[in-house]
Amino acid sequence: MTEERPTMDALDEFADLESMLQYFLEENQEFLSWLGTNVDNVGDGTMTMSIPYDEKLTNIRPSADADERGDLHGGVAATLIDTVGGLVLRTAMDDPFDVRIATINLNVNYLRPATADLVATADVIRVGGSVGVSEITVESTAPDGETKPVAIGQGAYRVFRPE
């Protein structure tokens, strides 16, 4: 099966790159779409994506009060880190749609439970000829109303360029 890749001309159909990527996720990435993944911002070497809080994505602590919200499962944050960490590399390439990217290493450090929407900001550290590296911070609003980092990560990705 041949994978159709979008071209820069395809951007004309969309208001901006965020809209194009959002459409791609919704149409081609069923798991990310099921999670409610949103493309919030795309810049040069940076990208922000989010996943809204949903009870279906939570774990309930045995000691939790009946009114206490469940913590989002850590795998949701890891998925967000992996996804935005790979996509952000495209922002540092001359032709972002002419490559394929695959995760080769992912490191996630959890800092505190997340009980609200997750917002991940990724920054490109370096994109070489065949490997790219990004750093990602995931934030969530704590019960006290303060937005705090809940996880940080770093990803290394294999970049497959055309021959």
Automatic annotation (TrEMBL):
UniProt xrefs under Pfam families: 4HBT
Q: Which UniProt keywords apply?
A: Hydrolase
Its Gene Ontology molecular function terms? fatty acyl-CoA hydrolase activity
Q: Enumerate the InterPro entries for this protein.
A: ACOT13, HotDog_dom_sf, PAAI_dom, Thioestr_dom
Q: Which residues form the Thioesterase domain?
A: 70-140
The record's PANTHER family line, in alphabetical order, gives:
ACYL-COENZYME A THIOESTERASE 13 (PTHR21660:SF1), THIOESTERASE SUPERFAMILY MEMBER-RELATED (PTHR21660)
Q: Which family does it belong to?
A: Belongs to the thioesterase PaaI family.
NCBIfam families on file: unchar_dom_1
Protein name in the entry:
Esterase
